[in-house]
């Protein structure tokens, strides 16, 4: 029978011996307790015990890190964990890339403040019990620094009239091109990462559907190994089930259902006075028994409409028609491959970013500007903007003040100079596409105002008698589809709305102006 001795430091405690037991040789113990007295030989011993079977601790401690794996933290993180152990820990360590750090065995949290690199970390918590059994757990995390943020992100969504869902996008502005890691999280889920190749300093990327009542978070970084060399902040956007506040909203019947096209009378958001809004439909109406049908819905404000007209414009395939600002002429045109440069107020070249639809963009706030330099004094510049998460935006394009709608819109701007400047006035504006266009004055076109089918009498003629649409009301109206003389032509529709809306039904000064069938439109 083998035996061992150990000393007692204080009464009524449980102690441990460092004696190693060979389980294959020894199955039972007898032990006595020795009180130290100068030396162990003269010490006072207790009686030997009866034979006992030692309890062998063969189970390692179980470590469980509670801090979420693959999370992203600004500046620092606090690691939390639990330990399950049938006895006690003898030693405990934490390691986040710089080697083992000894910590007290009773600790169950540890704050990490990186003084070295910012980037990806593997964080391990390790411990041993008195049986020399080791347990551990680990997580991965990204730690970035607020002070070195140099990427701008914006999360937004656009209504897809075909799928009747909201498509989600993240727009970005980065300091250099190359491969970036994009992290996206929906609600309280896990971060999903992807690698995107950024070929221009700004652009956007599709991230999937964003349903109503969804919170989306995003983070973007450029890594060299595990080290962050460029990064954004964590951007978070809540998309609630709230209808757009811009009023009124136009829905178009596409043959099977009504689809949201865009907002009308956008200038009323800033100037509550009567004016004529001319808009080229994005959703093409499909005839229903010879009728083209619409409805206008109103959310929080009150809309006053004096007259609505519908114009059909038939033109050869491959050619386009559009409205020229500021004099609201309708022209036939084709886009060109003319050279131009687009430089912002910081000297950054955004030419490649804005030359391709969806391939990049320029985003600026009210202290920024983008200048387009043309080799020749072309008359017309095509601009496509993205309203962004808060579409109540205005911007100057040359000397023309533009009022944006809730959905994207192509705008033709008359400009005979060799330079044209875009200047955001409120919040942020995103220019997705710029191109120079060539007018086709000799292109054959056929115009026809549609005959009214069903519409309140107040809206049939411009006479100063307004039809009032109250908050949350819906107005249905329709026209007789104009006959198409040339079946090989394509057709676009333009809607003319004379009126205004009041925000919160405040009193406002109103200017009345009559509009005849040819008032407010010229065709060249």
Secondary-structure map with pairings?
Elements: E1 34-37, E2 39-45, E3 62-65, E4 71-74, E5 77-84, E6 89-95, E7 101-103, E8 109-112, E9 119-129, E10 134-144, E11 152-160, E12 165-173, E13 178-186, E14 192-198, E15 202-209, E16 214-224, E17 227-231, E18 235-239, E19 249-253, E20 258-263, E21 275-280, E22 291-297, E23 302-315, E24 320-325, E25 329-335, E26 340-344, H1 351-354, E27 362-364, E28 370-374, E29 380-386, E30 394-397, E31 400-403, E32 409-414, E33 419-424, E34 429-439, E35 446-449, E36 451-454, E37 467-469, E38 474-480, E39 490-502
Parallel strand pairs: 4-10, 24-32
Antiparallel strand pairs: 1-2, 3-5, 5-8, 6-7, 6-9, 9-10, 11-12, 12-15, 13-14, 13-16, 16-17, 16-18, 19-20, 19-22, 21-39, 22-38, 23-35, 23-37, 23-39, 24-25, 25-34, 26-28, 27-34, 28-33, 29-32, 29-34, 30-31, 30-33, 36-38
Quick overview:
The chain has one helix spanning 351-354, and strands at 34-37, 39-45, 62-65, 71-74, 77-84, 89-95, 101-103, 109-112, 119-129, 134-144, 152-160, 165-173, 178-186, 192-198, 202-209, 214-224, 227-231, 235-239, 249-253, 258-263, 275-280, 291-297, 302-315, 320-325, 329-335, 340-344, 362-364, 370-374, 380-386, 394-397, 400-403, 409-414, 419-424, 429-439, 446-449, 451-454, 467-469, 474-480, 490-502. The protein has 524 residues and is mainly β. The chain has a 5-stranded mixed sheet, with no helix packed on it. Strands 13, 14, 16, 17 and 18 form a 5-stranded antiparallel sheet that branches. A 5-stranded antiparallel sheet has the order 20-19-22-38-36, with no helix packed on it.
